[in-house]
Structure formats: structure tokens, C-alpha cells
Amino acid sequence: MADKQTWSAESYGRDARFVSDLGADVVALLDPKPGERILDLGCGDGALTEEIAAAGAEVVAVDSSPDFVAAAKDRGLDARLMDGEALTFSGEFDAVFSNAALHWMVDAGAVLDGVSRALKPGGRFVAEFGGHGNVAAIATAMVAIARHRGADPALAHPWFFPTPAEYAELLEAKGFSVETIFAFSRPTPLPTGMKAWIALFRDPLFRQFGPEREEALDEVEALLAPALRDSSGKWHADYVRLRVAASLKPVF
């Protein structure tokens, strides 16, 4: 589909390695133990999956991107191609972990149904992803350029960015007990710049512009410069993250 996000493990590693680098605190919150069976939901290229496995856990990694799954397999991981909104596991994991992936899975109810099925009773769910207000300036600039150029502005903001209250309510409705949930601002340096970020993460939007793609990228970058580029020329993304730890309530 023309409007579907696709991934290249090579370009992701070059322009977005900070995503997994910033996931260390989430792995610490997971606190994987030797012998535990853990599902990494939206594993990307498997960089954090490796860290969980290094703690002695038995990890299964899933992602909807064939290129990411191949990259994770190249690390020697048990990586499988699977839609996060249609997980097929049943009662086999001590924990489900996810970093920087759940905001791409807009049917959050279906995701949590699959997570709850995958967990053993009392199993834990630890995740971090985009929260309400994440990349607000970036999305607004992309919407503005899409409208200005007569393109589809919906492709500028395809994500699910809930508030802590919204997500906590959904977790409770799906049978989870929420232990911690909070949102925090994390301005994030972009080592390869803003243009590389928007070209990577919103390629479907800019494909609409055909031969004028580069012009549209430049226009978005120019709109964002006053807010997200500092006096030395370095770029930061206006990230807001939501971090959660919950456990599946036992069914009596």
C-alpha cells in the first residue's frame, strides 16, 4: 500500500539508533531474570532484545517489518514476523516488553488483548512509547505542508499517542493492574538532522509529492527550525514518552 510505513534496518540503524539507545531504562524496569520467557513486541532490529537475552531470559521477538525481523535473526535471535494487533501466543510468557513501537499500533485494544492472551496469569507488561503531545511540532509542520500542497494530511500523523489516564483506563479494562504509568518530556537529539528523521518516519507522506518530495522536506524543515534547531545548528525532536508497568490480574 502506498500509505504504509516500511522500514529499512540499515537506514534505521543510521538515522534512529538513539531509539534503542534510550531504551535502557525500560529494560531496567522490566528487570529480566534468567529462565524467564519474555516477548519483545515490536522488536525492530533486535538491539534491545539482545540485552534482554543477555540477562539469561528466553526471548521471542516479533515485528511486522520483514527487514527488521531479518536483522534480528542475523543477531541470532528467535525473531518472527507478526502483526502486533493480532498476536497468536497463548499463556506462555512471564513478561511482554515493548519499546518505541506501540504508538505504531493504533488499535490499542487489539494489542492489549493479544498481550493479555500471551501472558501467564500474573505476568507483567512493561512498555515505553509515544505519549500525548509526542512530536507535536513536527506533526503540525507536516500537516501544514500537506495541506498547502494539496496532499493527504492524515499521513502526517498516523500514530496513537494516549495520555496516561487514557491508557491506564484501557489497561484496567483489559484485565491489567497498573503499577506505574507516567508521561515525560524528552527532547531527543537527532544526530543526522531533522530532514533525515521526517524522511525516515513519514516516508508515506512525502511519497505523495513525487518529484517535489525534496522541496516538501525542505519546507517542513524550515518551519521547524525556529523551535527545534538550536543556535549551533543541532536538531532535537520534541518527544513525549509514556512509560508503563502493569501486571495481568489472576482470573479466579
Automatic annotation (TrEMBL):
Gene3D superfamilies: Vaccinia Virus protein VP39. Residues 22-149 form the Ribosomal RNA adenine methylase transferase N-terminal domain. Keywords: Methyltransferase, S-adenosyl-L-methionine, Transferase. One of its GO terms (biological process) is methylation. GO terms for molecular function: methyltransferase activity. The keyword S-adenosyl-L-methionine applies. This is Trans-aconitate methyltransferase. It comes from Rhodobium gokarnense.
